[in-house]
Amino acid sequence: MITDGGLLQVGTEEEPFQHKGIITLHGHHRSKELPIYGTKVIAVRNGTLDLHG
C-alpha cells in the first residue's frame, strides 16, 4: 500500500526502465482482506505509482 505521500517509481520519462520488471504479490487465499482493496493489491491512497518503460 502506497500512502501518505509515498512513491513507487520504476524508470522516469527521461530514462524509461528497459528491462523486464516483475512485481510478485505473496499471500494465501485465506489472507485477511483490506477493506475496499482486497487481499493482493498494489493500492495507492494519497501517494504516487509512477511506471515508465
From TrEMBL:
Keywords: Signal. Coiled coil: none annotated. Residues 1-53 form the G8 domain. InterPro entries: Fibrocystin, G8_domain. It comes from the Eukaryota. This is G8 domain-containing protein. The lineage of its organism: Eukaryota, Metazoa, Spiralia, Lophotrochozoa, Mollusca.
